[in-house]
Structures are given as C-alpha cells and as structure tokens.
Amino acid sequence: xxxxxxxxxxxxxxxxxxxxxxxxxxxxxxxxxxxxxxxxxxxxxxxxxxxxxxxxxxxxxxxxxxxxxxxxxxxxxxxxxxxxxxxxxxxxxxxxxxxxxxxxxxxxxxxxxxxxxxxxxxxxxxxxxxxxxxxxxxxxxxxxxxxxxxxxxxxxxxxxxxxxxxxxxxxxxxxxxxxxxxxxxxxxxxxxxxxxxxxxxxxxxxxxx
Length: 209
Known about the structure:
Layout: H1 11-26, H2 28-45, E1 57-61, H3 73-76, E2 81-87, E3 94-99, H4 107-110, E4 120-124, E5 133-141, E6 148-157, E7 162-173, E8 187-189, H5 200-207
Parallel strand pairs: 1-2, 1-5
Antiparallel strand pairs: 2-3, 3-4, 5-6, 6-7, 7-8
C-alpha cells in the first residue's frame, strides 16, 4: 500500500498565503471591474463611427439646452459644417451661427479661432432650413457597471434619430475616491478615446475623407 504524502507548509508561507487571499477578497470587485472595463473598451471601439457623417449639412448644438455662443464656435468652424443652430443662454431664442472667417483651418488649429467673434455670423434661426445632425454633450454612468462611465459628445442623425458617431471617453475608477488617501484619483480610459473634432485624423474618421 502506497503511503500518502503530506505536504506541510511553514508558518510564514501560510501567513503570506492568507494575506494574499484576504487581499484578493477585498479587491475582487475592483479587479473584476477593471477587466470588465477592458471588455467595454473593445466593444465600444467599434461604435466610434457607426456611419460616416455627410459634409456641408446644418447642425444643432445640444438641442433644447440653453448655450453660450462661444460654446458653439468650434463646431461651427469645422470645414464640413454648414451652420450650427443653438438655443441662446440669455434670451432663450434660437439662432444660426455660421463661420465666415479666413479660409477654414485644419481642425487642429480651430481652437485658436474659438475666441474671435468676428469670424462668426449669428442670426435668428431660419426654421425653413432643417438641421440634419445633432451634437449632444453627454456625461453618463454605464448601468450595472462598477464606477464606469462615458463622457464626451455624440453625433445623431436627426433623420433617423440614431447615433452615427461617439466622440467619447470611457473611464473606469479602480478605487472609490471617497475611500482613498487625500481623495486620490485612480482613473483609467480606453486608449482609443476620441472626444473632439480637434485633429485631421478625427475629421477623416468621421467624415470619411
């Protein structure tokens, strides 16, 4: 009859093993949440641009939400946007804003034009001209996901009421900041994050140039 071998662990090994088990139990949700976040990154990556956006169409900025004209300048300055309609923050009236400045620069340079009011014509909205695309600012949590959210902008085709592009960042906080030393952040974002039309590459991605 064969004798059973009994493996005896030293006390330090048992202590280390117990500590690792406790750590794994304490941080299980954090680790699980991180890997779920990585899965979302892969899934949402395919939803960046669902359909190409048609150039030279009329847009509306944050439909129904009062907005300062300066917030609309960058979008209006895009070479591919005809004009942008917005609800004015002060008088709650609709206006159309059109870029009339120098030859439209690459998107990477538009930020420098956002403070030049003379580059934009603002007039009462011509409601006979229908807007085709809606620009929507978003900041939302993913339901049933641990400390995972999305922020940025979505482009919606108003003819179908469907999202055609997500210019968003998906973020995951590894730890609850309320339980960290000095409210230390522990944020992670997907490596493909595209939050604005601020580069030629992103313009090509969205408009298909």
